[in-house]
Design goal:
single chain, five-stranded antiparallel β-sheet, four-stranded antiparallel β-sheet, 16 helices
Length: 491
Amino acid sequence: MVDHLSENTNRSDNSQAQAKPITVQPAPPRKNVSIQKPDPSSGGKKPGKNHIYVRETEGKVETTRRVLGFVLMALFAVLPWLTWNGEQAILFNIIDQRFRIFGMTLWPQDLTILAWIFMISAFALFLVTTLFGRVWCGFTCPQTTWTFIFMWFERKIEGSRHQRMKLDERKMDADKFWRKFAKHTAWIVVALLTSMTFVGYFTDIRTLFTDFWILQSSAWATGSVLFFTFATYGNAGWMREIMCTHMCPYARFQAAMFDKDTYIVAYDVERGEPRGPRKRKVDPATIGKGDCIDCNLCVQVCPTGIDIRNGLQYECINCGACIDACDDVMEKMGYPKKLISFTTQSRLEGGQTKVFRFKSVGYGLALLALTALLVVDILLRVPLEFDVIRDRNTLYRENQEGWVENVYTLRVINKTQETQTYRVNVEGVEDMQLLGVDEIQLAPEMTETIPVTIAVDPYFLEQPMVEINFTIEAVDDGRIRKTVRSNFIYQ
């Protein structure tokens, strides 16, 4: 009788704890943390209590994550090496204040385009989070991708989870030294290549990869490479889950975008509880248990060290490692899979998941509107910057013929990636003459400043100040044209 009441109490407690899986709560003590007693033979040393020894897992979700990670890594590594018209295709030159993206060069004057891109990225993240939870964190976040890369080297050099735990318990010997040395060397090499590739997006990557090794790179390039090498090595090698659980702001505000129809990694409490060990192929109904055999593999494979059976916690990055581990156990036990799965609270409660709802539709419409504004901004963009600065030291002067002259400075920026020839015209007053250079040839992404003089017969000047228009147009492309207003002063 006591056992029966205890079992029912446990079932009730577990059900209540799992009634609302989207409630974000702190994770319970981590079960895959190695807490060992000091071994006298190891000099009293033991593995750190907060160190997580992640177990390797295989399955459909893990395969998907690896393929996606490989594709993104390949794009990251290849893109800065591509060329366009003989120049680096993607180059964010912060020092010279110009961003080159294939055939388009963005200048500080094109800030609106960058603003649209950032806003589109933000709303895309909001929409994906509302629909699919933290899939960004689990499948495409650089922190997750590089962490799994570092973990791969760790497994290949130090062995499985159990072997790594035993290795850390041992005192330092030759075998342990070379394994630790090889692991950290591999981490540093990966971090260095990652850093050089990343910095290569902001400077000429071919020059960087040559000058860095012969100690000829600039101070800022060298400093940036060393800084990001240290950051990558520390974040992916040492901090790992700390970045996700304590430093990433996304983990904190994600709950504001979750609802009952958001896809999350969740444990089916009704089916799994009460949990407990048993022999293979045993029907859980005959022993009064749920499908969960309490093997804790879902905890051991979690990179952030949480137990998904305790409900959704903000530490969960939706990597789905626990899904593969649980599916493998269910298959061996002869039980249906998906005890842990990508699902929604509505589905767990027996309802239907609604994809089109107020929040998701709102984010979707905002994303479409911002995308449309970006496209319009790009289509209406003129790859030419033209400024007219009137000489303020001398308002006007009269030449030997009695004509009135005003002096101006024209500043022209060729924002294309091709050499352009521009023709300058001025209109506004009858019989107006432009004295000086009226054609300018500029190399790609170059700036030219030229002085010009405008002369007008005073007979045609009816007012002390009249408005005139300077127009500059590309000789070979009439679509590249810009007009700037200025004033002509007399008296």
